[in-house]
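OP here, attaching both records as promised.
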Amino acid sequence: MPVTPCDLLELIALDQVGPTVFEGIPTRYRLPRVFGGQVAGMALEAAARTLTAPWSVHSVQSQFLRPGDADRPIRFVVEKSRDGGSFASRNVDAYQGETRLFSARMSFHRTESGGFEHQLQQPAFTPPDGLPAAADLARERPDEWPQFYLEWDQLDIRVVPTDPASPPMSSTGAGAHSQVWMRTVRPLDTGAQNVHSALLTCIADLTFLSTSLVPHHIPPSHPGIMMASLDHCLWFHRPFRVDEWLLYDQVSPTAYAGRGLCRGEFYTADGVHVASVIQEGLIRPLT
């Protein structure tokens, strides 16, 4: 059943069942297993709820340990590992029953002003207006585009066309680069930065790993490929909102022995670098 635009915040909705224990219901998509990005987003929401403003997450290091059942609730256990003057650390483990599905280490920074500041220039891009929506591509070209895009009615994802010969080039002779624009279909009624960071943690897992297939000219919907995220690491640099356009610039620097590595950067429409993502995933041909 597709998630509707007004349900976006329900992706990270949690009930508090103990002082540092929370429970959430995963969204049921086409596959029977839980979408890993949602687990990571819920985990960040759980950790953030053990802190109060002005603490904002700046680092998430997580691993997916086992596939989860999309028809069962997930329990998130938060450990308050450190509360310092400038930084606070949280460990989060996710369980179904006694089975641990996911583990993460997160760091929060007390808001401060001043200090050094720089960023690299935003990469070249095509503006989102007029670009094809991922859902339309999935509908019109089902052999090339994953059908799960049809289930994400709450997101507007625009695919940026990239030249197969554009840098960075891989050893296959093809590019290893992809770009998408993302934003929610409807404005969100919250300005809490940790909520927007939790939602970005969730949606950053949607298009990422398929970048490792670009150098091999294999569409992510190919039935002969097994794909699964192994970890999910994010760094949040500056404030942002997921209901405003964000450019997701993605590159796969290497793949070997059934694993692909992806690096990504998020930029606002006016070129502000707001987040970085790194993920390694399983990309195994089925034989």
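Record two, same layout:
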Amino acid sequence: PWGIELVAFGTIAIAFIGWLASLRIPLSPAPSPELEINWNSATETVRNIRFSSQNRPVFLSLLANSWFWFYGAIVLAQFPLYAKDYLRGDHSVFVLLLTVFSFGIGAGSLLCEKLSGHKVEIGLVPFGAIGLSLFGLDLYFSSLAYVNQVEVDAWKFMAQTGSWKIMFDIVMIGVFGGLYIVPLFALIQTRCDPKHLSRTIAGMNIMNALFMVVASLAAMLMLKQGFTIPQIFMATAILNGIVAIYIFSVVPEFLMRFVAWLLIPTVHRVRGIDIDRIPEQGSAVLVCNHVSYMDAIVIMAYSPRPIRFVMDHSIFKIPFLSWVFRTAKAIPIAPAKEDPWLMEKAFVDIAQALHEGDLVCIFPEGKLTRDGEINEFKGGVMKIIERTPVSVIPMALRGLWGSFLTRDKGNPFQRSFRRGPFSKLELIVGEPQAPEQVSPQQLQEIVKNLRGEWK
């Protein structure tokens, strides 16, 4: 009794609470007040998608976002029949599966903030994609192992052998879905031109709807071909892996950030200081002291956006790290006496990168320190800003000296053991310097002061 009334009252109450919460959203001026509503939905749809496709990384992120809706639409659409025919459950079992999945999405979304260090960490996207495929496959095997011949409600279902394994797979699909979708949405909002943001999001919603329609058609086709629902879960998980490989191959920044995000926290406890001084948009030259072979990866892991690193060609060729640096579009450089052509090409590539609005990071010492002290800064930075006058942002790494990949004397394994696991280090970002006020000596002094006595 009163079920319909309670549902109606609850819906209105939640909507009212949401409206009250929206009143606390700060007002912001319209970035394009001259825009007018186009009542022709067809032309406006085409225009919105065209806006979305102008920025390639953003557009591919939109596609990756829409793919999640494809994945979710297929999986969620199977839950009613899956609960009834395979789990032998009543409607309460279907509601339980939806609740578990929703809880997973919420938990994964909240977990993003903790794992990302309060910044847009797109390295979580491959992590989420891997989890979606792994637990989608495991849901297939868990479904095969579940045996029940009598109809059960939610409570009796949870008492069945194998039921908790199925619920665990579903909640983990939700968790990894949250880890996948939240960084993508944040990336789209931060990388998109503010004047086009609303239209880009409108285009994204249109693509989401299209992908969901295609997902429904794909599910119908698989069922018509004789696929069981667990087999649909398996096929979707495999297809998700294939799509993820494609996305991360055309936008390697995702995978590169994933490697950096995974590698650095497993070795060090890094504290970033004044990282917000690295601009979210526009070009700049970052300069930093050179302590270890991992310097670029540490900076890469804690920068809010991609960086083009200029590095010695010998470091650029180190196995495994070479793949990371190539993926990050690093620029190899060599001394003029060793390879004048490569040196000149590096400066041309740097100018082009800055012209395109990229961040470029150089290590002005030109070599790794052999004693932990900062070597003399070379004049390459002056040549860069003479060609392309942009702000120069000094940075300092400290706490890395003596780690495995430095040139400290002694056995590297003994050094690492002496430092202990998860040794501390810091990345400190200084105030941006105007190009007309920059000199190598001045930058060296700033970096030295930022680093302090801790090597």
